[in-house]
Amino acid sequence: MTVTATLSPTQGLFLARLAADAVHAQLTGVRLTARIPSGSPLHDDGASFVTLERAGALRGCVGSLEPVQALHRDVVRNAMRAMHDPRLPPVTAADWPDLDVKVSVLDRPERVAADGREELLATLRPGVDGLILVADGRRATFLPSVWAKLPEPEQFLAALLRKGGWPAGEWPAGLSALRYGSTEYHDYGPRPVIG
């Protein structure tokens, strides 16, 4: 059974609030305190992504593809790392009032049996599949939520190939693909001004 299958909506909302609290703690220098009940699936190893957006603009998105630590710890770590996503300027106190926080809890990735571009495109499930591409010592992924911006499988795959540094219209030698599902939980702004 996957971690996502064992989480209740309340536990998912707790994770989104925990991620927001981790960002707030980093911005204010206040210590993060959270009590996770014993026996909770939040103690189970899990993989997550934390996405930070301000007024619909991406401010950071960082995560883990494999479960290597307790889910609640993974979420806190990824929230703090998302604040310093190397692709974007760091999140600041000015972002906080309008910051939306999303936590995606990932199912374990499964290899896709596809020997080429057309086979992979035929197996993709828009809106459902997260996708990981691996080749040449590089790896790139899109969460299932990216389908909202790239709804056509061809678009989705081409953009992910570009993200990984491969030509968008080619199938790199030795490329392997993995798919995963995820469940999203949100903690939306507005929030009180810091300061």
TrEMBL record:
Gene3D superfamilies: Hypothetical protein ph0010, domain 1, Hypothetical protein ph0010, domain 2
Domain AMMECR1, chain residue ranges per copy: 10-195
Top-rank taxon: Bacteria
InterPro entries the record matches: AMMECR1, AMMECR1_dom_sf, AMMECR1_domain, AMMECR1_N, AmmeMemoSam_A
NCBIfam families the UniProt entry points to: AmmeMemoSam_A (TIGR04335)
UniProt name for this protein: AMMECR1 domain-containing protein
Organism name: Dactylosporangium salmoneum
